């Protein structure tokens, strides 16, 4: 009988092992499945099944990218794992066709991804990766993992070997330090937006509710709460540090910041320039869809038709200095208006923290690779143009990175519209071939005076950028 406390090795090394099965690594797994000649792959995730932001699948909310930004289409529209094939298998192509939807419901995207995980081989849920090491004798990565039972207990230990790995552990809810004391008040509902739907009924019963954060999640939650509250008795506050409840930059040329061309341009910039640039681009990815802002305004306007005003307060430019419990059933927020320099206090019965997400640190899983890792001036892992950790040359395998490289590849790092392109680029590099030919140019914008070189395709003219005259 196998001892469950002893790692059981898999002596047949894989070409690629993925750690985490979110949309980005699921894209990689789906495209790897279609590589001619086949790749030996395995992907692990500690969750019992795939679910994409289940706490934020509010009725009617949609993706902010078109349906073509599925797991595979922008790299291989003939793949069996496209969203359109999902609709075909569900006999829903005609309803989708007549719906004329460019942006699908979030719940539908979640269902599509779960359909892929139900049919794609090589995915292992309820498997927690505990450690990753480099074995110099075998010239392979060693991946230790625990197989988890229904209640999260360890049922068996295993060890897998791989020539290459792909890290796709995603992000985690972020709570700024001044707001952390709020989460320590069990008698008052304080939840992160990631868990909104699980606590929605409890929140709706609260007398006064405060939403902190004005990104897409905060706006959708505020709108959902507003629609459920009686006219004239809404009792809602919506606060944000940003200077305005600003719309997402969604112009067609603005969207070219989410192209491979811009990703490649950004990676070539000096580190200090990249670090300065990302915070200034918040409206590209941390603002709110204009349609959602319009829906909020419409709902507020409707409530003024009888001559009154809704009991709501929407205030930008506000930060929470400190926060704590008031008595046993209320919270007190100490607020400061950044521009005015004024301060006040707000008493509330419930708080929703729409304060975003942060990339999960790689250090825990990659502690065994730390001696080999190269870091930048801010002690972050260096990541090369092929989406690989920069490791010591003695490590002959590649450790690819998904959604942990905003500092090196820009605001498009978590964007679903780049998932298929990045997966294809990784597989092209891993195989040393071109199972997925990639476009030579993807944007009308030339982001620098020295454009990214455009590779030639035999038999086709190379598109030329307008000539630039050097300044003297």
Polypeptide structure, described:
With 472 residues, this protein is an alpha/beta fold. It contains 12 helices and 19 strands. It has helices spanning 23-33, 83-89, 93-99, 106-119, 200-204, 216-228, 260-268, 271-280, 282-285, 290-302, 406-409, 419-431, and strands at residues 8-14, 16-19, 41-45, 123-125, 127-135, 140-148, 154-162, 164-167, 171-173, 190-192, 209-212, 236-239, 312-315, 318-326, 330-337, 343-348, 350-353, 357-359, 398-401. The strands form 5 sheets. Strands 4-3-2-8-19 form a 5-stranded parallel β-sheet, covered by helices on one side. A hairpin with a 5-residue loop joins β15 and β16 (343-348). α1 (23-33) crosses α12 and α6 runs parallel beside α10. The longest helix has 14 residues, at 106-119. It starts with 7 loop residues before the first strand and ends in a 41-residue tail after the last helix. Residues 1-5 and 455-460 have low confidence and may be disordered.
């Amino acid at each position: 009988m196998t001892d469950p406390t002893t790692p059981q090795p898999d002596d047949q090394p894989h070409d690629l092992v993925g750690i985490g099965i979110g949309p980005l690594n699921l894209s990689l797994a789906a495209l790897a499945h279609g590589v001619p000649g086949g790749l030996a792959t395995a992907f692990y995730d500690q969750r019992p099944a795939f679910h994409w932001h289940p706490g934020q699948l509010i009725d009617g909310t949609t993706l902010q990218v078109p349906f073509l930004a599925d797991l595979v289409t922008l790299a291989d529209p003939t793949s069996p794992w496209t969203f359109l094939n999902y609709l075909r298998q569900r006999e829903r192509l005609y309803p989708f066709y007549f719906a004329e939807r460019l942006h699908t419901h979030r719940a539908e995207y979640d269902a599509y991804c779960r359909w892929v995980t139900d049919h794609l081989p090589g995915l292992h849920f309820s498997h927690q990766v505990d450690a990753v090491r480099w074995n110099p004798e075998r010239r392979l990565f060693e991946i230790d993992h625990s197989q988890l039972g229904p209640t999260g207990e360890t049922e068996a230990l295993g060890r897998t070997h791989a020539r290459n790995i792909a890290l796709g552990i995603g992000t985690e809810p972020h709570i700024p330090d001044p707001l952390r004391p709020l989460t320590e008040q069990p008698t008052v509902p304080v939840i992160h937006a990631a868990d909104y739907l699980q606590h929605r009924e409890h929140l709706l019963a609260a007398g006064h509710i405060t939403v902190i954060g004005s990104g897409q999640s905060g706006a959708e939650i505020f709108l959902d709460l507003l629609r459920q509250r009686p006219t004239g008795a809404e009792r809602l506050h919506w606060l944000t540090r940003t200077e305005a409840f600003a719309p997402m930059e969604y112009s067609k040329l603005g969207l070219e910041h989410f192209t491979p061309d811009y990703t490649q341009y950004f990676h070539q910039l000096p580190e200090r320039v990249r670090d300065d640039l990302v915070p200034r681009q918040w409206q590209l990815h941390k603002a709110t869809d204009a349609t959602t802002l319009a829906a909020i305004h419409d709902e507020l306007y409707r409530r003024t038709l009888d001559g009154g005003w809704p009991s709501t307060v929407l205030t930008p430019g506000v930060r929470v200095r400190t926060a704590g419990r008031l008595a046993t059933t209320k919270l007190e927020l100490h607020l400061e208006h950044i521009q005015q320099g004024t301060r006040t206090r707000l008493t509330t019965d419930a708080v929703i923290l729409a304060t975003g997400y942060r990339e999960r640190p790689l250090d825990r899983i990659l502690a065994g690779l730390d001696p080999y890792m190269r870091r930048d001036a801010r002690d972050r892992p260096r990541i090369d143009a092929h989406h690989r950790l920069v490791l010591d040359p003695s490590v002959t395998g590649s450790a690819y990175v998904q959604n942990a490289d905003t500092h090196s590849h820009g605001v498009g790092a978590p964007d679903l519209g780049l998932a298929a392109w990045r997966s294809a680029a990784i597989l092209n590099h891993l195989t040393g071939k071109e199972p997925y030919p990639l476009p030579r140019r993807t944007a009308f914008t030339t982001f620098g005076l020295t454009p990214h070189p455009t590779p030639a395709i035999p038999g086709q003219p190379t598109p030329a950028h307008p000539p630039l005259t050097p300044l003297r």
